[in-house]
Write a structure and sequence with these properties.
The chain is an alpha/beta fold. The chain is built from eight helices and seven strands, in the order ααβαββαβαβαβααβ. It folds into two domains: 80 residues, no CATH class; 118 residues, Rossmann fold. The chain is globular and about 55 Å long.
Length: 208
């Protein structure tokens, strides 16, 4: 296990050095739901990975549900990347009326993480009127940030509409908010973010 950790640290260091990122490497042992939030409070972004296939760390990796649970520990914004070969070329920014979704889009645009990527705004509302109003508000904000991109809206629930739309558009990254808390309903009906991690190779940029 130590050899595998050393290999991962070397790969991370090489990638940061090649990208010109100022970095240091720390090795911590303990509960990830204690260690990661403690470190995250001093940073503007937390980047983690979630492999589409089982990785070399076996059962040591966080599950999709555990990865998303980091948000409830105050780890945000959270950028979840996928397989090493994946590139972020198409970014879908999703608003559904939740404060968290607006926060996620605003923060993502301000950080300008993937300036060369194609971006699209998607509003999902319970009615046509609600979806169109959400899209209008977010489009106005995006234009104020000098972002002129494609946009669209859907009537329905985020749980039912987002995944098929993101797959059809072939998004590499979905920017979205998720509601706080862990209700029984969310346990019985997995939220869209978890479905994306479990069923696709798309990355996520999340806030709660």
């Amino acid at each position: 296990m130590d050899r595998e950790h050393d290999r991962v640290c070397q790969q991370l260091s090489a990638a940061c050095f090649q990208a010109g990122v100022n970095f240091d490497v720390r090795r911590s042992k303990g509960d990830p739901f204690e260690v990661i939030p403690r470190e995250a409070q001093f940073h503007d972004l937390v980047v983690t990975g979630h492999l589409s296939q089982q990785g070399p760390l076996g059962e040591q990796g966080l599950t999709a549900a555990e990865t998303l649970a980091l948000l409830s520990c105050g780890v945000q914004p959270l950028l979840v990347l996928r397989d090493a070969e994946s590139e972020i070329r198409r970014v879908l920014l999703v608003t559904d009326g939740l404060l968290a979704s607006a926060k996620a889009i605003r923060q993502f645009l301000s950080q300008n993480l993937f300036p060369a990527a194609e971006q699209r705004l998607l509003a999902i509302g319970a009615t046509d009127e609600q979806a169109q109003e959400l899209l209008r508000e977010m489009a106005e904000y995006s234009r104020s940030r000098q972002l002129d991109c494609e946009s669209g809206w859907l009537r329905g629930s985020l749980r039912r509409m987002l995944l098929p739309y993101a797959q059809k558009w072939q998004a590499d990254l979905v920017v979205m908010g998720i509601p706080k808390g862990n209700s029984i309903l969310r346990t019985l009906l997995p939220d869209p973010a978890r479905l994306i991690l479990q069923q696709t190779n798309m990355g996520l940029y999340l806030m709660a």
